Amino acid sequence: MSPVPEEMLNLIRISDTFFPLGSYTVSQGMEQLVTDNLAAKDRIYDIISVYLEKIWKSFDLQIFFFALQAARNNDIDALLELDRFCFASKIAEESRISTQKTGFNLANAMEFREHTVGISYKQMIKTGKAPGMYPIVLALVARELNVNEQGGLSLIYVNLIEVVASLVRLAEIDYLYAQEIMSDQITGIDLPVKQFPDLHQSCPIVDIASMRHEKNTHRMFIS
């Protein structure tokens, strides 16, 4: 049996729920959708598809690809511009802060090599000179671990598992249905690259749910 490539193992490692991203504390607004009775079981699949197509693939994934190119070029200025753009584009405060915390946790858990753009940018995040949004940090990590564009799969998977796992913890679905959703959503998934002017995230129901969730005094998740 041939050994599994190191790059594949690293891709699995940074995508695993055991990796210290803090994603178990995040529902991405799903908790509020459940509270408002907007996530009935027969609608869950469609709602998650909206997350996938209107937020993760159309925006976060694209930011990741542009940041990966900047990392390859050792272009810290471009990384910082993308980072600030990503930060400002998250309308709901909860979404903005949770994406930033996830990025910080990923950077904190990663040992970058000396004299690389990754270690320089990690220091900028620690000193507050850069927001450290998750798609930006993931691009630096993907470059460091030589998984490159495949890091986009990690971004989709981590976001997907956050939302689906929150539904399980909220007792809206069981583990079997969760696996059915995961299987359907990742089957045949592609990693489309768009031009920068085409970046967009348009999912008002999620933004409103996230904003309402900030005022919810009885909640399980931070977002």
Question: Would you kindly provide a written description of the structure presented here, covering whatever features stand out?
Answer:
The chain has a single domain (6-12, 22-213), classed as Urease accessory protein UreF (Orthogonal Bundle), CATH 1.10.4190.10. The protein is built from ten helices and no strands. The mean pLDDT is 90. The chain has helices at residues 6-15, 30-35, 41-72, 76-89, 93-109, 117-126, 134-144, 151-169, 175-186, 204-213. The longest helix is centred in the N-terminal third of the chain and has 32 residues, at 41-72. It starts with 5 loop residues before the first helix and ends in a 10-residue tail after the last helix. The protein has 223 residues and is an all-alpha fold.
Short description:
By secondary structure, the chain is mostly helical.
What attributes characterize this protein structure?
223 residues, single chain, 63% helix, Urease accessory protein UreF, mainly alpha
In percent, how helical is the residue content?
A: 55-70%
Order of helices and strands: HHHHHHHHHH
Envelope shape: globular
User: Any guess at the CATH architecture?
Assistant: Orthogonal Bundle
Number of separate strands? 0
Low-confidence segments, given as residue ranges, are none
Which whole number gives the mean pLDDT?
90
Give the helix/strand layout.
Blueprint (H helix, E strand, L loop, with lengths): L5 H10 L14 H6 L5 H32 L3 H14 L3 H17 L7 H10 L7 H11 L6 H19 L5 H12 L17 H10 L10
